[in-house]
Structures are given as structure tokens and as C-alpha cells.
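WARN retry 2 of 3 for item q-0093 after timeout on previous attempt; input resubmitted unchanged.
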Amino acid sequence: MTLPEKHNRDDDSTGKSEGEVEMVTPVGGSEYEKKLVRKLDKHIVPVVIMLYLLSFLDRVNIGSARLYHMERDLGMVGNQYQLAVSILFVTYIAFELPGNLVIKKITPRYYISFITVAWGIIATLTGIVQSYAGLLVCRLLLGAVEAGLFPGLTLYLTFFYTKGELALRIGYLFVSAALAGACGGLLAYAIGYMDGIAGQSGWRWILIIEGIPTILMGIVTFFALADDPETAPYLTEEERAFAVSRMSREAEATKEAKEFRWEDAMKAVKDWRVWVFSVAQFCMDTMLYGYSTFLPTMIKGIGAGNWSNAQVQALTIPCYALGAIAYLVTAWFSDRKQQRGLFTAGVVCFSLVGYAILISPAPPGAHYFACFLVATGLYVAVGIPLAWLPSNCPRYGKRATASGIQLTLGNASGVLAPFLFPTADGPRFFVGYGVSMALVALGIFCHLVLWFAYSKVNKDREAGKYNHLIEGMDEQAVKEMGDDSPNYRYTK
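OK item q-0093 returned
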């Protein structure tokens, strides 16, 4: 196949060394590029969606298991259930950033497939624990091996997609989280009827049956994922060159910028915007984990005990479905307009209204409607910032570290969230709703601050305010500056 863009090569492209991938300068938005992106989507998106769906399902299905006598069978009292939910995040947080730093050394295919098989085995074995202590051990191990998946997938997508394409693709991960909620509710609804089969409670069947597919998916992943565009077997030689070139064009990346450098990592640590992103992520993830884990409990409380467990599980499904649709629509417009902050802040206001209604003395129908409002902003609040920050870090070392910090602090909320919904506070959970509402408001404020900060820097750079910093520097040296370059424009 002949590339229509080949006549646009840089003059020095013919000076490549033997064995070097030919660098083709693509025309952004060309029909050839669109075709390439569709091909990448075909081979990457189904795999990452299934991986994160299973990951999220195995992490939060303990919420459905609670309805089928888990606490009774394992002798849990007081806040022991909340501790079992939250303890997963102790190891999850500890292993999240290190995983982001080693994925490129181990290679994504080996790393992601290994941790997937490992957590699948642990998730399945959780269904046969005989004591509360055994449950805690399984949850700790599950957190340790699952920790690397989401940051790994987020980083992996940046190897293939430009920042104008990233929000929608990371959005697919959160659509899969919503699907996990919906499928989890549907599966729990069906598996719940197995309660008592072979003398086992329904919660055991839920954990076992939902864990086994993860092991199989880990094996599939080993053969399905490519490590990067240069080694993707489903691309032709010319398509691989095109894919590599367009990513270099997008990030203005040099060879050195694609390697991990500790000085780049330290720039992420010193960048105040990374920490504002992380505070916002903590706020929004508190909503995510509280809602995803306790939605069945919330709806059961709304029904005042008049709805069966099967009915409660069925009522969770449309909430998650709306959350998925809301994210896809918002991410599409966000990519089209290259606006992250305003879209995020605007849509998440629906969640604020939802929590306000849940706190109010409204009738059950209004409270159930409020669950839909919370879901509308839920995945937007969590997902779009996870595309926003890495897309503004063109150098790999800074991008990997910044994303790791953002995800680590964000997931620290998983320790807090379960304790916002203690059994004693049911059925209304005023404290949980109130704290979630306050944190969502703080998260919205953080995103508006970031939007303003990035807008100001872009405006100053457009005006040439920082051009004196690159006087006398050659083009290569300017590119090496990454997002510090006056020529770089942030996505806002």
C-alpha cells in the first residue's frame, strides 16, 4: 500500500540508518490516519474494555455478595465488612505507582497478562474462604496484583493514541466500569438464584463464577496485545511507520523523551498541577467507590426493605447504563473541542444535584431518580481527568510519574469510601451522601483552577511571553523541553 502522505517526508528522512523504522510525516486528520485509528481501535479497545470490566467487577462484586449472606457466613460484625472492602486499597495504593514505572521495562504484553491471570486466580479463590481473616488476605492480595492494571492501560493507550483521541479511549475504560456495574448486577441477579446449590451460599457462587473468566482473559491478552506501534503484528510495515511518526508529531517527542528519565519524574513531583489533579481525583474516586460498591445497599434502603435482592440488583442496571452513555457523549464532545476542564465541571454538577436530592426528605421515586443523576457525572468526573493530565505530559518519565501520582492518591479514597456507608447509618446514609457531595464540589473547583491555569499559560505562550527562553536553541533542544517549551500548548 502506498501512503498518500509520503511526499511530505522531512528532507532528512532519507538519512536513516539501516534497520531504522522509516519515519513518515502524516497529514493530521487524513483519511489514511482515520483508517489507521479505526484499525487500532479494532485490535486494542475490545481487549482493554474487557480487562477493565473484569478488574472492576472482581473488585466491587463484594457489594453484591453482601446481599447473599456473606457477613453471616464469615461471622462479620460491626464495621468488619467496611474494613474488608477498604483493605484492598492498602496494597492497591502501594503497588500502583511502581507498576507504572516498570511496565515499559517488562513490556505491556507480559506485564498486563501476568497480573490479569494472577488476580483472576485470587478473585476466584475468594469465593471459597472459610473465615473473615481469609477474606482479608484475599482482598490484600487482590489489591496488590490489580494495582498495575488501570495505570498500565492508561499509559499503554498513550503509546498508540494522540491527545486528541485519548479521552474517548480512556472513556471506554470507564464505560467498561459502568458495564461492570450493570453486568455485575445482572449476573448477581441470575447467580443469586444459585443460593443454596451444593450447599453453598449465593455470595460464593457470585465470586467464583465472576472470577474464572478473568483467568481466561489473561491468557488471551498475552496473544492479543502488542507492546507498541512499532511491534504491532496487525499493522503493515508502512502502517507501523505511520503510527510511530504521528505519535512523534503529536508530542513533538524525541528519542530521549520516549525513555524514562528520573529528572522527568522529578518534574512531575514538583509540578503543582499534578497535585491539584490528584486532590480532585481523590474527591471524585470517593464518589466512584462509594457509589459502585454500595449502590445495591443504597437502593435497598430507598425501597425500605420492600424490594427483594433480585429486584435491587435489577434496579442498579439502568443507573450504570446512563453513566456509560453520559461518559461517551461527554468524551466525544471533549475530544472534538479539546476542552477537558469545562466539560468535566459542567457535567459533574448533575452528581451534586443527585446527592442533594438523596439527602432531602423526598419520596422513594425521587431518591431513585437521584441515583441516575449521580451516575450521569460519575464516570465523567473520574475518567476525563485521567486523559487530561497525561496528554499534557509529552515526556514519558513525567507522564508515567504524574499518572501514577494521580491514580495513587485517587485510589486512596478506596480506603475512606466504605466507611462513609456503615450499616448503622442505613437506610438513608446522610453522612455518606453529605461527604460525597462536599468532595465532588471540591473536585469541580480543582478542575476549574486547572482549566484557568492552562488557559493562562497557553495565552501567554501565544503572545510570545516566553520566547526569550529558547533564543539561540536549535529545534531538537526545544523539543527536549517537553511541556516546558514555549511552543507547547496544553489541552485545557
